[in-house]
Design goal:
- The chain has 2 domains: 7-186, no CATH class; 189-346, no CATH class.
- By secondary structure, it is mainly α.
- The chain has helices spanning 9-37, 59-69, 73-77, 84-118, 123-148, 159-184, 193-221, 252-255, 257-282, 289-314, 319-345.
- Helix content is 71%, strand content 0%.
């Protein structure tokens, strides 16, 4: 029997830190969804990477940031006449979102520097950690690039930039999980053919989950969840007549509310069917306890997530339920990543 690789104490500590940061990123993604759902994302019209840590502390500071907001398209076209008290409600959500991003940056960068200085991190892992930090910094810049799209003429952020911002966020979350799992479950890939086949299926499922999440960003960016609030039909039709009304044809998949919502529904059902297929195939496979637990958890989260999505649609996107739906999407991705890792590492 080959020896089972056991993680060192240093690896366990580093893994615990990465898992903690992954949880923080999870919360960040959900908070970003709430910011979008409450139309708070355009409330701060400038980006101060350093001084942005400090919120307005007196009336003069509040009047300054509110004055900047009153020059924005969102105020002039959607919220004209908003009072300072009303403005503070949306300001604090966006401020918290940005602040949490900065806290995540510090929670990652400072321990990384300390661990590197102590010599706990070998070169391959060091490169991974530096790469994660670079992508995290890029995510902050991408977030501002997204906000900028709503500060020109149209008081809505670009759904393309919103989708890119979400995609990078979930990629960082998945990468953090993978690196942490590598530290606590080191080892070579398994050699059992049936398990390798399941791993390929689970990896395809993770890709499908990410595509579905990105399609959800287009739904959010177009407020498409506020239309066709019936299921399984879309206002009495399987295929709404306006689905392919735009020209050129490919634009419908990114800018047509009917098409974008239909695509998200179809992808969600495909994820559910694919998850069920993997779960069924796993019943007869020679899996260990961790592998079976990961697959069962993925199946459970997939069922709950589809239920949350349908409920969110039927109830016309209440913020708490929609936030749970976004959290469910990230949880499903996390369960899928764990499943792939467990199947590959045995």
């Amino acid at each position: 029997m080959p020896a089972i690789a056991v993680p060192s104490d240093h690896d366990r500590i580093i893994a615990a830190w990465l898992f903690a940061v992954a949880v923080m990123v999870f919360a960040m993604i959900v908070l970003g969804g709430v910011t979008r759902l409450t139309q708070s994302g355009l409330s701060i019209t400038e980006w101060w990477p350093i001084s942005g840590w400090v919120p307005p502390l007196d009336d003069a500071a509040w009047q300054e940031v509110f004055g900047l907001y009153r020059e924005s398209p969102e105020y002039l076209k959607l919220n004209f006449g908003m009072t300072l008290a009303e403005y503070k409600t949306i300001f604090w959500l966006e401020y918290t979102h940005r602040l949490w991003g900065r806290i995540i940056g510090v929670a990652f960068f400072v321990p990384m520097v300390v661990l590197l200085a102590k010599g706990w991190v070998k070169r391959p892992l060091a490169l991974r950690l530096v790469g994660l930090f670079v992508f995290g910094a890029a995510q902050g810049a991408l977030g501002w690039y997204m906000v900028m799209s709503g500060l020109v003429e149209n008081p809505y952020v670009s759904q393309y930039r919103l989708a890119a911002h979400l995609a990078l966020g979930v990629a960082i979350f998945a990468a953090l999980l993978w690196v942490a799992l590598d530290l606590v479950r080191p080892g070579d890939a398994v050699g059992v053919t049936a398990v390798r086949g399941l791993a390929r299926g689970a990896l395809s499922l993770v890709g499908l989950v990410v595509v579905t999440q990105v399609s959800g960003a287009f739904v959010a960016g177009l407020d498409a969840g506020l239309a066709y609030n019936t299921f399984p039909l879309m206002d009495g039709q399987w295929l709404p007549a306006e689905m392919l009304a735009m020209r050129p044809l490919h634009v419908n998949f990114f800018e047509n509310i009917a098409t974008v919502q239909f695509d998200h529904r179809l992808l969600a059902m495909t994820v559910l069917v694919a998850t069920a297929w993997i779960w069924w195939q796993a019943r007869q496979a020679p899996l260990n306890r961790e592998q079976r637990l990961a697959i069962n958890l993925t199946a459970l989260v997939a069922v709950v997530q589809v239920g949350l999505g349908i409920a969110t649609l039927l109830l016309v996107v209440p913020v708490p339920l929609a936030a749970l739906h976004q959290a469910g999407a990230v949880a499903l991705l996390g369960a899928g990543v764990w499943t792939v890792h467990a199947l590959l590492r045995g």
